[in-house]
Amino acid sequence: MSARDSDWDGVRLHVVTGKGGTGKTTLAASLALALAGGGRTVLLVEVEGRQGIAQLFDCPPLPYEERRVAGAPDGGDVYALAVDAEAALMDYLELFYGMRRAGQALTRFGVVDFATTIAPGARDVLLTGKATEAVRRRVGRERRRGAPRDPAESAPHVYDAVVLDAPPTGRIAQFLNVNAEVAGLARVGPIRNHADRVMEVIRSPETAVHFATVLEEMPVQETLDGVAEIGSVGLGVGAVLVNMVRPPVLYAEALSAAAEGDVDLAAIAGGLKAAGFEDAEAAAADLRGEVVDHARRVRVEAGMSERLAAADRPTYLLPFIGEGIDLAALHTLAAALREQGGA
Ligand SMILES: Nc1ncnc2c1ncn2[C@@H]1O[C@H](COP(=O)(O)OP(=O)(O)O)[C@@H](O)[C@H]1O
Ligand SMILES: [Mg+2]
Fold first, then answer.
1. Gene3D superfamilies annotated for this entry (predicted)?
2. Is the C-beta atom of 20 inside 6 A of ligand 1?
3. pLDDT, tens digit, for every residue of 115-165?
4. Rg of the chain's alpha carbons, rounded to an integer?
């Protein structure tokens, strides 16, 4: 493993939340690629059952199994897993009670529906349980019934880091802070022990919750609220990931004039004429509107950046990628994260 200059040394579970549509899945995948740099092995976990990761890496739908989906340019592997609550429940029934076949019968009678739908706390702990199990897993001691619970502390971890593409900001604190609910369901016994072990990882300094946002009112407000909420339940707040950043296309002076509606129409028309436009005056009038909109958007974004600064967290800027998000785009975003100390 190479030494590196990251804001997240010691963090092994990276949880990525944010308002829907701000780029959680895209940035979780980019972060996984960034963390895999230098020959590391990273697991990217998805829990919303949308197969977003498979789409992103252009591979067939992920089975309930860890699959290699990409490599980092300087060595290192990204594996991915789509966790499904029902399959995770089967896992635990087998692990704790040796009852996989019974579990299958339970599905038929709808008991699994109970655990996965009626009791959301149980559902969440099954999902976070998969991610935290991957965080703890050590080489040479694959999880097996009858195997020692805590393999030699000296054995290296299977994954250097785990990145969780998590539920949106509105549900994240409840999703991660599932202990209280599970305590009500199971006060003692293996399920309770399991919940405790999950919470041990989530509450440790090994876990950081990152917030994806764009520079707009609602996502910024959700980010600030989320940062406060995650902090208040005692979990580690990670970075603010500002996504889809577009650099201004005008100099500062022209921008502030344009934001006030002050645009030099004659200069634009002159430029267009010189470039060989037929109806330069009309085109200039159209462009004027766009220039003013752009300048106003840049001004709003500056205000949003200022508000985000109040969160007082490491903040990374991720560029808007006009060609759309493909593997090359994920590498571009991963490089941006690494340059800014995000991995
Ligand atoms: N940096 C970016 N540049 C351009 N498009 C982006 C960027 N990040 C995300 N997108 C696009 O925005 C949409 C929402 O992103 P996604 O990662 O699915 O968000 P979420 O998981 O938060 O719902 C997708 O179409 C994605 O391709
Ligand atoms: Mg998503």
1. P-loop containing nucleotide triphosphate hydrolases
2. yes
3. 555 566 777 888 899 999 999 999 985 555 555 555 567 799 999 999 999
4. 24
Q: What is the CATH number of domain 13-246+320-337?
A: 3.40.50.300
Which residues have CB atoms below 5 A from the ion given as ligand 2? Answer: 24-25, 52
DSSP H helices in the chain: 24-36, 52-56, 85-97, 100-108, 111-113, 120-136, 169-176, 179-185, 190-203, 217-232, 252-259, 265-274, 280-309, 327-339
Q: Which residue type occupies 75? A: G
Does ligand 1 lie within 6 Å of residue 246's CB atom?
no
Ligand 2 centroid distance, CA of 184 (Å): 30
pLDDT (tens digit per residue) in 178-208: 655 665 566 667 777 888 889 999 999 999 9
Ligand 1 binding pocket includes 326 (Cβ within 6 Å): no
